[in-house]
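Q: Could you predict the 3D structure of AMP nucleosidase?
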Amino acid sequence: MPSARSYAIIDELDKLYRASVASLRAALGRYIDHGERPDDAARAAGAFCYPEMRLRYGGGVARAHSPRAYGRLTAPGDYAIDVTQPALFRDYLAEQIDLLVEDYGAEIEIGRGRKEIPYPYVLDAGHNLDLTGTAAAEIARLFPATELAQIGDEVADGFWMGVDQPRPLALFDAQRTDFSLARLRHYTGTPPSHIQNYILFTNYHRYVDEFVRWGAAQLSDDGPYRTLSCAGGLELHGAGADPDEAITDSAWRRHQMPAYHLIGPDRSGITLVNIGVGPSNAKTITDHLAVMRPEAWLMIGHCGGLRPSQRIGDYVLAHAYLRDDHVLDDVLPPEIPIPPIAEVQQALYAGAEAVSGQSVEELKARLRTGTVVTTDDRNWELRYTRSALRFNQSRAVAIDMESATLAAQGYRFRVPYGTLLCVSDKPIHGEIKLPGQANRFYERAIAEHLKIGIAAIDALRATGERLHSRKLRAFNEPPFR
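A: Sure. Here are the predicted structure tokens for AMP nucleosidase:
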């Protein structure tokens, strides 16, 4: 539990943020209603600016040696980050502050920053301002607007080269975070505030139906889970909630990657996102989910089995990836290894053992560990003769279109990751996914597979700070997790 001192700092940040939002909204209203342009002097004084948190570290020895992968200061000097929606990140920010103040004696200051809030980020979904046509273009000329040149992942990717500037306190600044918060609502059909710290990804909608049924059964009037938030705005509350209300609701179809959130206290619940098929979707959604600083994300989806000994319904626990997805090659070259996270691997295996009820030997015959190929070609089978050598050299046991991308994004953004796939077909061995066979497979396999992912999350939740492996830290890592 963070200290009252740190919560007071976040509350002051939030006060500054809300004041800037109110000033910007009021100025927008005056311009729309009366043609009054924003006051240049007020803008120069920071009326529309994000609040900023600044930290000073004198370079003293840490009061306690800690093996944790975050909350560390390795160089004396000034650090800073501008912050959006401090109330949304209240617990996270307060925890990071406590670690740095208690272990390093860091001094914290807050004030108005220098970056202005782009006007689209202060407009509520139900705002009544007419921003169509030339009005929108004129507003963008007179008010702070989104400029892509100011939004990027240079810190996360190790490209930040600030000269005579404070070091970054965190991977993502306010504009990058606001950009992603807006995209998350658009893609998932749910409020970003509903996203939980533990995230499951799947590539088949039937997992959604099973998750909704399971999630509705967890709801109670006095327990930890009281709300199941569904894509499209539907929410189920309390004991006796009807899962079919969400399963039959069609509002999710308006969203590219619908999300479902079993909301727990302090964001300790589970989010399931149906990312569909392909590495582009996998990269897109994790680009944005990363700003929420989740504790972990796991892929539970289907794959093609590549070994003749595998059977339909067997599991593959990825411990390495052959990255033929290509969507990250410019920022994370494919020769960079993506290491397995031991705590996640152990949690997934233990979950499979517990949920299946099988002995170690029985499970060993059904669960393979090995390399997963992630391809960007949905019809990879048509050029198998060109791919066979790479598959063989990598000792690959399965192929899909998302897992390596999700793992690489976890590595890139310091979010613990893991993959447990279920073999749904074996194209190179003549077992293709025909409709009747597929339906029987889905009915038998999905419930168990989903429960393994949930059991793994339960184990990870109990792991604490050890979950955040030091193998994800860069040389010049920002102090905040």
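Q: Anything worth pointing out?
A: The mean pLDDT is 92.
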